[in-house]
């Protein structure tokens, strides 16, 4: 199995980097951490642009050192920097050709991804003859992404590519990246701290703080861990649930998901029948009750058992983790987080191992977070 | 008769001046461009020292530069001896002495606009080019140079105009020898000294119009690019 194994040690400016991780060679790996934690530095080191630190980078069995064969302009990575740049003296098509020309001279790289594929999928046809100076942020980003991919890289490194993009573009581009990743089997390292982006396209996630790795694993697992919550703050805490599409009601435009035997109704059509989809639910959008409510106030009622309760100091809130009942008796355990006031927790007299009923309005299920896997 | 003699000698001075400016700019491109690149991207600790040396000709009185160059170019120095060995004539009061002096005093006029232009391109653009597989020279010729067209034009025009107009150093180092080192600025001085104001008018007026056109072209071009960027 060819992975990207990375060991980086050294001081860069005020940051002391001491990072070790083996990135998987498929899927999309998220690199997440606060500003100044070293995310961008890691990409710059991988690209060979920061040299004066200790590195051991092993990719596809070869050690990538700063020697002629792997000097910074010969590395097999496609890098999109945080501040994406097009060459202003070339039009859009010439910008794309810039990398194609330089790729042709290297015979060992097969051309997997064609210019036409990217022009079609990133909707660049009308932009080709335009000057980069007249492009909007979203248009520029698509061109830069296309140019980066045209390098035919063996690993794609994207540094917060969508940070200043409007939602409409963002959703489209995330779907493109996911499909691209699956179709061409080119692994992606994706830097972001946007929970939408993480839950939508991430397979694996690595958390970094002050130059050190603090946690890693699959996105569905890590998002429920305290390490992740400490990093992004409590307000945005949410849970990712996976379910299989079992029914779509065309009239009402709603989809029923099967969550290990329980039903969850979500708006729209997140995926085809029998596909697994992932939805994100914020913990502040969840209502709990110790007993079943005879109500139609929400579409969804789930059952679970409280597995942990954390009463926060100096705050009005408590955090509960609830293990959803698995009616199919398979191995899968799905957990959902709930954030309620400590006042309400005491009023309902909830304790660990109590059974609870969970009420979720379909409106609060994040439509952006749909993803078929 | 007399007026024709002077006119033709003025034409020779004009030709010498243009030749001097063109050759100077050619060498400035060769020397000043890598220097500007080094100052923009490579130097860190040495930058203020190199910048100071490059900028010195801008603030020193021309007579100070001229004085040191006369000493430096004299047949007793190594440089002077080498030049005599190669050409059989001495460097001082020769056309090539004039070229060397022009390169030195016009250097800041070439380096500064270009350095600013390189710095505007920034590190990210260069990193992007490398990450797309373009090597160092490839990036320099196909990304940096085309992106600093404006900087090159500014450097060229200002250095060219500055070389045309220099008087003090040229007089000290070249001596104003007719047909050899006598440039327009010295011709005008000679005409005024001889009270031939009519001839001085022709040359001075010509210089005024030429300088006006050069600067107008420069500012027009720069203004247009600024508007287009916005």
Describe the protein in words.
The complex is a heterodimer of chains A (373) and B (230). By secondary structure, chain A is of the alpha+beta class. Chain A folds into two domains: 4-232, Rossmann fold (3-Layer(aba) Sandwich); 242-369, RNA polymerase II/Efflux pump adaptor protein, barrel-sandwich hybrid domain (OB fold (Dihydrolipoamide Acetyltransferase, E2P), Beta Barrel). Helices cover 23% and strands 34% of the residues of chain A. Chain A has a six-stranded mixed sheet, sandwiched between helices. Chain A has a five-stranded antiparallel sheet with strand order 15-19-16-17-18. In chain A, helix 2 (92-104) packs parallel to helix 4 (137-150). By secondary structure, chain B is an all-alpha fold. Chain B has one domain: MetI-like fold. Chain B is globular, with a radius of gyration of 20 Å. In chain B, 35% of the residues are buried. Chain A binds chain B through residues 44, 47, 49, 72-74, 77-79, 81, 83, 85, 87-89, 98-99, 102-103, 106, 133, 147-148, 151, and chain B through 124-125, 127-136, 138-139, 142-143, 146-147, 149, 228-229.
Please outline the helices and strands:
The complex is a heterodimer of chains A (373) and B (230).
Chain A (H helix, E strand, L loop, with lengths): L3 E9 L2 E9 L4 E5 L6 H8 L7 E6 L2 E3 L12 E4 L11 H13 L10 H7 L15 H14 L4 E5 L7 H18 L3 E4 L3 H7 L2 E6 L2 E7 H4 L3 H7 L5 E12 L4 E6 L2 E6 L8 E7 L3 E4 L10 E12 L5 E8 L10 E7 H7 L6 E6 L13
Parallel strand pairs in A: 3-8, 3-9, 6-7, 7-8
Antiparallel strand pairs in A: 1-2, 1-4, 4-5, 9-10, 11-12, 11-14, 12-13, 15-19, 16-17, 16-19, 17-18
Chain B lengths: L1 H41 L4 H13 L2 H12 L4 H10 L7 H37 L4 H12 L1 H17 L2 H7 L9 H10 L3 H33 L1
